[in-house]
Amino acid sequence: MQETVIEPTRIKPQANAAQEASARSQQTIKPTTSKDTSAMKSNRSPSEIAESVTKTVGKPLADNAKLSMRDVCVHYDQKQAVYDVNLDIAENQVVALIGPSGCGKSTFLRCMNRMNDTIDICRVSGSIQLDGMDIYDSKLDVVPLRARVGMVFQKPNPFPKSIYDNVAYGPRIHGLVNRRTDLDEIVESSLRRAGLWEEVKDRLASPGTGLSGGQQQRLCIARTIAVSPEVILMDEPCSALDPIATAKIEELIAELSQNFTIAIVTHSMQQAARVSNRTAYFHLGRLIEVNETEKVFTNPDHELTESYITGRFG
Ligand SMILES: Nc1ncnc2c1ncn2[C@@H]1O[C@H](COP(=O)(O)OP(=O)(O)OP(=O)(O)O)[C@@H](O)[C@H]1O
Ligand SMILES: [Mg+2]
């Protein structure tokens, strides 16, 4: 069999975004599994296999966990969306959450900063700890939690405010600064880290909504990092962006992972391979497999993962 292997190398921050984007469009990922896949094929359907999974294969747990999820279940009313998930996300690592549409990626991601609290019918059980602290403790204030665990959404959602005020919003409401010069500094450094400063430094008073989609998404990332979060959750942050803007965000993720812990949901296996250290594969609300990203995409442990990455369903 002719095999093409894409090394899931991390994006080099200095790489030229346009070249990267063009090079990536040529990439495909093909597993180089040595398994006899025909022998693995069971007569059961993917949903039957998923429903019988009681234990995640691979290495779902990690040393130096920043976030520890144990036996996490999520229900929307009577309907269960996430089943007994155990997963650690290690400090300063990027974990990609992948899997077919409706498998619970966004639901599970939203558990990590209690965003599901905003959905009336949603119930979360199990335990989620951030640095050993139970984030579902009834006494916990979710506002500072969400500053520690920030979120970037699928669709860029700048506030209807100026570019400056978008970034200054968090530091202001969290009372992080007293002086205007300190706020100016945070706004500039956040925009610089988000790779947007040079493009907007002369129009900080213009509306954030007037930026291009890719710029808006970087503005949202600047807004998130302005409050110095420890963890950044990203739910398909590039799905509304073109390849050049996507390349810029991916470079940014690689850079941010030096200081932040990141969980990213993506439908792009190439993206997961490029930006993440570990990949978690979900199917019908079950966490099927977690392994080093390279392993997941070249020699996965579970037949469902293999079927998914080879495009047998999705
Ligand atoms: N607000 C909600 N109310 C009721 N059910 C919901 C809600 N949000 C999600 N669900 C259900 O929970 C399950 C998981 O949905 P979720 O959005 O987490 O999947 P996903 O993996 O993120 O899918 P996609 O890749 O399409 O974004 C689905 O069956 C979905 O219909
Ligand atoms: Mg989703």
Describe this structure in words.
This protein is an alpha/beta fold and 314 residues long. The protein has a single domain (59-309), classed as Rossmann fold (3-Layer(aba) Sandwich), CATH 3.40.50.300. The chain is 35% helix and 22% strand. The protein has 13 helices and eleven strands. The protein has helices at 17-25, 37-40, 46-52, 105-111, 142-148, 163-173, 180-193, 197-200, 213-225, 243-256, 269-275, 293-298, 303-309, and strands spanning 57-58, 65-76, 79-90, 94-98, 122-130, 133-134, 149-152, 231-235, 261-265, 278-283, 286-292. The strands form two sheets. It has a seven-stranded mixed sheet with strand order 1-11-10-4-9-8-7, with helices on both faces. A hairpin with a 2-residue loop joins strand 2 (65-76) and strand 3 (79-90). Helix 9 (213-225) runs parallel beside helix 10. The protein starts with 16 loop residues before the first helix and ends in a 5-residue tail after the last helix. The model is unreliable at 1-40 (pLDDT under 50). Adenosine-5'-triphosphate binds at residues 76, 81, 99, 101-107, 119, 121.
The total tally of domains equals 1
- The coarse overall form would be globular
CATH topology-level fold name: Rossmann fold
Which band does the percent of strand residues land in? 15-25%
CATH C-level label: Alpha Beta
Oligomer: single chain
The CATH homology group name: P-loop containing nucleotide triphosphate hydrolases
Bound molecules: adenosine-5'-triphosphate, magnesium ion
**Gap between N and C termini:** 23 Å
Low-confidence stretches: 1-40
How many β strands by DSSP?
A: 11
Architecture (CATH level 2) name: 3-Layer(aba) Sandwich
User: What is the count of DSSP helices, taking H or I runs of 4+ residues?
Assistant: 13
- From the alpha carbons, calculate the radius of gyration and give it in angstroms: 20 Å
Helix content: 25-40%
Summarize the main sheet.
7 strands, mixed
Strand order of the largest sheet: 1-11-10-4-9-8-7
Mean pLDDT, all residues: 88
